[in-house]
Description:
The protein is α+β, with helices and mostly antiparallel strands. The chain folds into 2 domains: 2-32; 52-140, Alpha-Beta Plaits (2-Layer Sandwich), CATH 3.30.70. 42% of the residues lie in helices and 24% in strands. It is built from 5 helices and 4 strands. Strands 2-3-1-4 form a 4-stranded antiparallel β-sheet, with helices on one face. Strand 2 (85-92) and strand 3 form a beta hairpin. The chain is globular.
Amino acid sequence: MKRIIRNGLLLCAFYTVLSSVSSCQEKKEAAVAGDTPEVVAESATVATGEELLIVAHVTVKPEFEAEVIEAFQAVVSETRKESGNISYNLYQDINDPLKFTFVEEWKSQEAIQSHSASEHFQTFAKAIDGKADLDVSTLKQKF
Length: 143
């Protein structure tokens, strides 16, 4: 019985991560009943093939930590409001609290260019200039 419940909870966690499936409770109940749940994915954004992902690793210089984190908060908040932005998240390394990773998804290259030209991004870029090391990759889904 514990195995069935655990499997149901694992399925629930999986579907929650996907965040685009309906009713995790129904999936868990189906797993407990021994049924194989059908995955139904619904996307709020229709993929066009133009979407791009940016992964930016930022290592903050210790003496600027508080100042840079404040700039992070501002840019995340404002960027999430942009029409060309699909998602914009900031993660902190659990082993090195001065390492951060931005994971950004954009509708198109034009959306990225608009973001880069935005007032809040320009303010952010000036605020962290010389206070952090950056490594940025722009990715396009291959398959």
